[in-house]
């Protein structure tokens, strides 16, 4: 569950070392604990508020939501989205990124864009994860918790897009917002990843 050595190029990169890398600072080829901590700090408030609201309906309602979260982020998201990331090509048996750090690699590396079906599963899963608490809070008229839930999650997605998704090398992710110049330079250094974007094979 360790992070990759920041001085060593990722496995898809053709550079001999990371000294003077032209994409460094534009996209994160390597992740550090501070990115993981940042992600946890911005994502946890929404989950805590949603969980607190669901718990008022009973422990089993909360247990179902926790199962949904584990199923989506621990398995489905890894298959349909994370397996397209260059980091998934590394030899480690678990992911070393900031979003799903430590998750097992149960599927093969699938470079290139996500398929339409994978996008549907991805957004469908997200809708269930974040929609489940919303329904409980709305039906139960927990207006304060509902407002807090919406605000914390809106802040999470805004921060995610601005500071993390804008520097992520998983260009297949629908939330990725890295600029075109950074993508082009990354693909020049990672031709094995680039070729699957020129001739994508949908899985």
TL;DR?
With 203 residues, the protein is mainly α.
CA-to-CA gap between the ends? Answer: 27 Å
Radius of gyration: 18 Å
- Ranges with pLDDT <50 over ≥5 residues? none
Overall outline: elongated
- Helix and strand sequence: HHHHHH
Estimate what percentage of residues fall within beta strands.
under 5%
Count of runs of 4 or more consecutive helical residues: 6
Helix content: 40-55%
Mean pLDDT: 91
Number of domains: 1
- How many β-strands, per DSSP? 0
Largest sheet: none
Structural class designation: mainly alpha
Q: Can you give a write-up of this model?
A:
With 203 residues, the protein is mainly alpha-helical. It has one domain. Helix content is 54%, strand content 0%. The protein is elongated and about 55 Å long. It starts with 32 loop residues before the first helix and ends in a 5-residue tail after the last helix.
Summarize the SSE layout with pairings.
Blueprint: H1 33-55, H2 59-80, H3 116-139, H4 143-164, H5 180-189, H6 191-198
Task: Pick out its properties.
6 helices; 203 residues; mainly alpha
